[in-house]
Amino acid sequence: AVILLTELIRENFRNSKLKQCLLPALGELLYLIAIEEEKGEHPREYLTVPSAVYTVLMRCLREGEDQVVNHLAAKIIENVCTTRACHAQGFITGEIGPILWYLFTHSTADSLKITAVSALCRITRCSTNAFQSVIEKVGLTSVLNCLANGICKIQQYMLTMFSAMLSCGVHLQRLIQEKEFVTTITRLLESPSTFIRAKAFLVLLQVLINNREMLLLSCQARLVMYIERDSRKTIPGKEQQGGSEYLSKCLDLLIYHIVRELPGILGDILAALTNVSGRKHPSTVQAKQLKMSLPMMSVVLHLVTSQVFRPQIVTKEFLFNYGTLLVFIRSIDSGETNLDRAIGPTASEELIKTTLLTFEALTEHPSLLTIHRLTVEDCILPQLIYLVHSQNVEWRLFSLRLLSETTSQLLSHEVMAEEKEESFNSNSKLLSLIRNLLLPQYEHILMAPDPVPVYALKLLVALTEHSPASVSSFPSHFDFFYLFLSLQRLQDSILGNTMQTVIALLNNVVANKSVNMILLFEEGLAHHIRNLLIQAVALYLEADDKSSTKTANALLLSLLDILQCMLVYTANVVRQTLQAQKSGSGGDTQAAEDLLLINKPLTDLISLLIQLLPSEDTEIFASASQCLSLLVQLYGGNSQESMSPENMGSFAEVLKSKKDTRQLKLLLRIVKRLVS
Known about the structure:
By secondary structure, the protein is an all-alpha fold. Among the domains are: 1-138, Leucine-rich Repeat Variant; 526-675, Leucine-rich Repeat Variant. The protein has helices at 2-11, 16-39, 51-60, 67-81, 96-106, 110-126, 129-138, 140-149, 152-168, 172-176, 179-187, 194-210, 214-220, 223-233, 244-276, 284-293, 297-304, 310-313, 316-334, 340-343, 345-363, 366-371, 373-387, 393-419, 427-438, 442-446, 452-466, 479-491, 497-510, 517-522, 525-542, 550-583, 589-598, 606-612, 618-635, 645-657, 661-675. Helix 31 crosses helix 32 (550-583) and helix 34 packs antiparallel against helix 35. The longest helix has 34 residues, at 550-583. The protein is elongated. This is ULK4 kinase.
C-alpha cells in the first residue's frame, strides 16, 4: 500500500488535488509502521519503508509547492519523528532543516508555521545536525529574532531545539559565548507560558554549566528576579497545576547549580587578588585574570540579596572567604596593592563598593549574622574597623554604618540570649575589638566632615544601648564627644540627625551607674544641657500642633532624662555628705559644694520646667515635675523669676487639671520649696 500510494503521488506529482487526497493516507500508514516497529512485535523486514517514500515527501516540502501539500508532508514528518522507530532516520538529510525552516519563515498560515517548526524540533531530537544546518545557513541572529518574536508554541519548540544542541555539545562554544543568545533566552522568562519559562531556565542552566562567566550577564538581565518570582509560584506543598511541577523541577536544577558555582566564583576572585597582592604593576596575565574574575563580585551581590539563594549560600565558609576578600580590599584602599593600571580606577572602586554592599545585604538579615557571629567577629569586623580609617570618605561612611548596624544586631541578640539564659561569651570579644582598634581613632573621626561623625556616634549609641557595661570600658574617650557637642551646637540644628545622635549617646552614658559623672561635669555637661534644653523647650512651646512635632518631643524627653540623671547623682552626693556629717564620720563637704556650684547653671531651667507642667503629654509632665522637684530641693527658690505671674499661672492651671493625689502632693511640695 505504501509503495502504491507513493507511485501514484510520483506519477501525478503536478496534480495538487490528488496529492492532497493521497498524502493523508500515506502519512497514516507510515505512522502505523513506525508505531508497530517501536512495539517490536513484528520482524523488522516486514516493516521496511522504501527510500522512494522519503524522496517523494521531501519533494512535497519544496518551495513553490501548494501550501496544503507542504503542510501535509510536514505533518507526516512530525508524526513519524515523534516515535523512536528507525524510520525517522530516513528524513534526516542535509537539506531537511533548511527546507522546514523555509516553510516556517515564508508561510503566512500559523498552522503551517507551527507544524514546520514542530517537525524540525522532532527531527532535531533524532539528530541535532538538522537545526545546526539551519543556524549555519540563515545565521544565529535570524534564528534568535524568530525565537523572540514567535508565538508561544514556536518558542517552546525552538527552546527545545537549543536545549538539544547544548546537551549534545553541537555549536556549544559559539552558543555559550554569545551574549545575544543569553539575553534573548533570559527575556523569554517574561513569557506567560509556564512551559516556555521552564525550558528557558533549562537552556540557561546548560549555558552556565559550560560557561560560568555568563552568570554575570544573566544576573544583569534580571535572572535572579525571575527565579524568585517563579519560586514563589512553585512553593512546595502548594497545589501545582499544568506545567508548574515541570517548572519547579527546572528551577531546582538551576538554583542547585548556581549555589554550587558560588564558592568557585569567590575562589577565582581571591586567587586573582592573591596573585597581585602588594604589587603596584600587575603583569599582563594577572591583569587578564583580574578583568575576568573581579566583575563576578556583582554575581555574589545579586545572590546575597535574593531570598531564594541567601539562606543556601551564606555559610561559615562563605563568611570566612568574605573576610579574606576584605583583607585585599584594605590593601587596595591603602594603595599597597594598585589595580588601576590593570583594570582602571573605576573598576577598583566598583569592586570595593560591591563588596561592602554585599555585607550590607547581610546586615538586613540579623539571624544570619547571629548564627555565624564568631566568624563575623573574627574575620569581618576587624577589617571593617580598619576601613574606617580609609582616606576615601565614602568607604569610611560605609564601614562605620555597617559597623554600627552589625554591632547593634549582635549586641541586641546577646541581650536576648542572656534573658533566655543562653551564653555566647563573645560580647567581650566584640567590645575588645571596638575598644582596642576603633576608639583610639575616634578623636579624628569625630572631627571629620559631616556625615562621618553621625555614623561614628550611631555606633557608640548602639554599643552603649545594648551593652551598658561598655561605658565603663573606655571612659577616657568620652571627652571627645562633649567637644564635638559644643562644636555641633554652633553649626547644626538641634533637630538635626547629628545632634539627636549625640543626645541619645549622652542619655545612655549618664544613665550608666558606672560612669565617672565628675569627669562629665568637668567637661561642661551642665552648660551644654542647659543650652540644649532652652532650645528644645522653646521649640516645644512654640509648636501649634504638639502631636505633629514628634521629633521635638522625643528630643525634649531625652534631654529631660539626662537632666534627671544629673540631678539624681548630685542629690545622692549631697545626701550622703549630710548623712556622713550627722553620723560624725565626716564627709567631703567640699566635693559636694563644688558639685552644686558646677551644676548651678541648671537653675536657669526652673522657669522653663514650670512652663512645661501644664503639658498634655503625660511623659513630659512626669519628667519635668521630677526634674523641677530635684532642682528646688537642691537650690530652692533663689530666683525671683521662679515666682513670676506667668509661672504661678502655670502652677494654677496644672493644679486644677490634675486629680492624682501623688502628683498634687509633688506639685505642692515644689511650690512650698519655691516660696520658702
